[in-house]
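Consider the tokenized backbone below.
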């Protein structure tokens, strides 16, 4: 187990690509469960409503579909398990690292406008998440890193606009 966690840390630090991870269905499904659980716990920590859980699950499904579609576009479908495993493992570790920030971010006033330490750390974690995803995609697709950064940023903006639209107050 420790070896697997260290492998995900190596992926996060660009020392290993997704090709160095096992192509195991059991590992992938285990990480799907762990990832959904961690996301759910973070939403509980943030004191979010049931609607947030539904939107989070929907976006998780879109993320899985996006990885498959991107790999299919570049004719790299056989790498799906390893790529998804790398992304989910890194996401779980990054989410656990961000969990202590959730209560601090929840209690801060978004209208204040000042950049506090929790917000600065959250922005750093967001940039790191984009970096990790772009690195994993660049290795899986065998394409330039900057192209993958552009793909990840474009997809992240699309998903964020979907999240904002779905979470608008219902009148």
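A designed sequence for it:
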């Amino acid at each position: 187990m420790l070896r697997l966690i260290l492998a995900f840390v190596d992926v996060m630090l660009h020392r290993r690509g997704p090709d160095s991870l096992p192509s195991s269905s059991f590992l992938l499904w285990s990480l799907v469960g762990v990832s959904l659980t961690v996301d759910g716990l973070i939403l509980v920590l943030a004191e979010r409503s049931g609607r947030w859980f539904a939107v989070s699950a929907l976006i998780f499904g879109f993320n899985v579909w996006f990885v498959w579609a991107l790999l299919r576009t570049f004719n790299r479908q056989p790498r799906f398990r390893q790529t998804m495993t790398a992304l989910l493992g890194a996401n779980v570790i990054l989410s656990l690292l961000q969990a202590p920030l959730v209560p601090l971010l929840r209690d801060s006033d978004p209208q204040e406008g000042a950049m506090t330490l929790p917000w600065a750390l959250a922005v750093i974690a967001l940039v790191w998440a984009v970096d990790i995803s772009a690195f994993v995609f660049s290795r899986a697709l065998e394409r330039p890193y900057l192209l993958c950064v552009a793909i990840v940023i474009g997809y992240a903006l699309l998903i964020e606009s979907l999240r904002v639209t779905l979470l608008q107050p219902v009148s």
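The CA atoms of residues 9 and 93 lie 8 Å apart.
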